[in-house]
Amino acid sequence: MNFLTKILIDASGAHLFHTEEYIQSRRRLFKQLIQALVYEDTIKYAEKKLSTSLIEFSVQGVAKNGQPVIYSCKGYRRASFGRVELSAEPVLRTCSGQVSETVSVREFLSEIAGSFTIAAEFMERFIQELDHTLANDTAALFYANEQYTYGADNQAIRLLRNMLYDDIESGLLRAHPYHPCYKSRIGFDAVDNLHYGPEFSPDIKLVWLAVRKLNCLSIASPSLSELDFYQQQLGDQLIQFNTLLRGYGCNPDDYAFMPVHPWQWLNQLLPLYTADIHQKNIILLGEGVEIYRPQQSIRTLANAVRPELHYAKLALNIVNTSTARGLAEHTIANAPVISDWLHRLVAEDSYLAKELNPIILREVKAISFSSTCEAIASGQIACLWRESLYPYLTADERAIPFSGLTEMDRDALPVIQNWVARYGVYEWLVQLLTVSVLPLIRLLYAHGVALESHAQNMILIHKDGWPIRVAFKDFHDGVRFIQGQVTHSECLTILRATPRQHLARNSSSYISASEPEDVKNFLYSAFFSMNLSEVALFFDLHYQVAESTFWCLVNDCIMGYQRDFPEQYKQFQLFNLQSEYVIVEAHTKRRLQNESSIRINRVKNPLFSQPFPSSSQPIMEVSHHE
User: Fold this and answer.
1) First to last CA, the chain
2) What is the distance between the alpha carbons of residues 45 and 57, in angstroms, rounded to a whole number?
3) What stretches of 319-424 show up as alpha helix (H) in DSSP?
4) 3-state secondary structure of 397
5) 485-490, Cβ contacts within 8 angstroms, sequence gap of 24 or more
6) Band of the pLDDT at 219, cuts 50, 70, 90?
7) Residues sharing a CB contact under 8 Å with residue 253, sequence separation 6 or more, in sequence order
8) In this structure, CATH architecture of domain 397-604
9) 110/576 Cα distance (integer angstroms)
10) Residue extents of the structural domains in the chain
């Protein structure tokens, strides 16, 4: 039993929620909650200008005793898509002349319920996710502060900026910087969170099953040798598992091997799949010998001893940041097909392959099991294997998730501080934007495809802190295009369409669009309005780079590309990245409305500054660091 588990079940467990970490997490949660509710126009609120830029936001409510309540906070309307950014001051509650800090999520949402329309069942679900987020984040901060302070042996703090990529993935604490339910993990109890949350760097062994092939969907990239693959994953256990199957009176040729998350096996599969286990459609083989650690997404596990081996992305029946973390069967079927297609696009495009050299981390094998009982939904027993980043890196290259670029390190300095200091703020930032923006707009303009390139799905490759190139991941449901209007569309004819019942549960989860605007907005929602906006806010706060300057630098990248490839002028019109307004996803509305509701925001585009050029129009040069 680790020390945190002991704290949680001892009488002293209450101490955790009397700590500075609890106050820090609570204030962050309220900050992100109100920012999202105001930005997405979900609640009725008032704005009062306190200075040129500072605004007081206030929301009216009614206390249980019928007395009026006012919640107030200070913040800013940012240049980055009109994002709302609250100050560090706590949210205040004023009732009957008494002013106090806001401390209860349930009280806050209950008292302002009249300010927005939300069904009772959605309200209760939302409160539960917020409360879980607060508890989980407090535990993570408490653990990090215990682990990363000077100990009795006076060893130095282990800094994120000095870690290898997989260790940084586990060591990041912030999670989603916008979504208020950033660590909800509904399904896990408090101890499960300690055992399987990435912040606690747990050692996890996969549970291996043999599943009857007649009940399976199994897809692999043509480049993959399945025998070599399983030999690599299991080693001597491959022979042991085959022997075990024969001991059950089963022919190994009738079965496929697949791993499941240990939590999923104990909490979801054993109770639900008893009939399939009895009928030997599922046979438990036991724990694997390899040690894995969870990445930021929790359900993706990296090999802790042999990092060059594939990542395993496993179905997990929890809800985090509004999304159920199963693996739908159609995404399993599509994953290797989309991965190989994207890999081919990059390999055959000389500008991408030779100039930008992005990495496409392919999902090379995918498997899903469906029960003989039709009442059991599919997607609960599934696995995607994704290529490891490490074999792609040269000897002098290192990597960091994009989400790590806006993280504060253990020494209270930005993770990127030494790099920016060494190369210069503007030189480093221009290089970062060059290597990250250009591959994405090349894929959009030249090939008609948008990647869901939020900060968890992008990786920066650097040499001594200098940005070199980027890697992309998560393609099974993280791309959008118009079928038939992309390069090598013939490769996509075997893709499975998104089932109606899946769209009923998640209306924004599809890959095939009907309009170019939808494809463009997909890129905007993930990359520009979320990923780059966080970088813009971070550089404004820590390096005094005005947001307007930041977006001018982004615009320079885009217009520099348009200057270099004037033959794509029609694509610049088709996917107009410099339109006055863009549509982005309203993430928090997902928890407040049913899936059929419209959950988008039409927002001002910070890249709307000048029209995209024709071949005769001059374009600003993009500066490069030599």
Assistant:
1) 53
2) 7
3) 329-348, 350, 417-423
4) coil
5) 485/448, 486/447, 486/448, 486/449, 487/345, 487/446, 487/447, 487/448, 488/341, 488/344, 488/345
6) very high
7) none
8) Orthogonal Bundle (1.10)
9) 42
10) 43-115, 397-604
CA 452/CA 479 separation, integer angstroms: 6
Distance CA 504, CA 328 (A): 13
Give the DSSP per-residue string, 262-314. HHHIIIIIHHH-HHHHHTTSEEEEEE-S--EEE-TTSSEEEESS-TTSPEEEE
CATH of the structural domain 43-115, one choice from 1.20.58, 3.10.450, 1.20.1070, 3.40.50:
3.10.450
Burial class (CB in 10 A: 0-12, 13-18, 19+), 202: middle
Per-residue pLDDT reduced to its tens digit, 577-620: 999 999 888 888 777 776 555 567 889 999 997 555 544 333 33
The number of CA neighbours under 13 Å toward the Cβ of 145 is 13
As a whole-number percent, the residues of the chain with pLDDT over 70 amount to 91
The answer to whether the beta carbons of residues 454 and 422 sit under 8 Å apart is no
pLDDT at 310 over 50: yes
> What pLDDT, on a 0 to 100 scale, did the predictor assign at position 613?
52
- Strand segments, DSSP code E, in 7-150 are 46-49, 55-62, 68-77, 84-86, 92-95, 98-101
The token duo for 321 is 């940041």
Average pLDDT over every residue of 135-140: 94
Bridge partners (DSSP) listed for residue 337: none
Give me the pLDDT at residue 2, please.
64
Whether the full predicted model's pTM is greater than 0.90, yes or no, is yes
pLDDT mean across residues, the chain: 90
Helix axes 120-147, 20-39, angle to 10 degrees: 140
